[in-house]
Amino acid sequence: MSLQQPGSRPSDPEMAGPFPPDLHDVRHLKLKAVLLLLWALVSFGATYFARDLQALVVGGWPLGYWVAAQGAVLVFIGIVVVYGWAMNRLERGDRTASAPSSSGNSADHPHG
Prior knowledge:
The model has no long low-confidence stretch (mean pLDDT 74). The protein has a two-stranded antiparallel sheet with strand order 1-2. The protein contains three helices and two strands. Strand 1 (57-58) and strand 2 form a beta hairpin. It is mainly alpha-helical.
């Protein structure tokens, strides 16, 4: 293990900094913008239309109650799950696009 001089940049790309540059790719920014917009619409839209939602009854309780008590939390959890899935998919696609093509040698793929 080598020690680095203070102020020098690490050579390992994963240790280059807290935010890799590909996290600011246009696709990632669009994903974040869409999910934040969905969060804002659910959070503020449900509050704005709360009186209208009270007229609908689900399971003996007004729909406004369900949206306030459970819906916003479930939508937020859904947003986190979608973000994680989409980021994994984008990163996997980036990794396969930047990977050099193999020569078909079985040593390159020990499991397959």
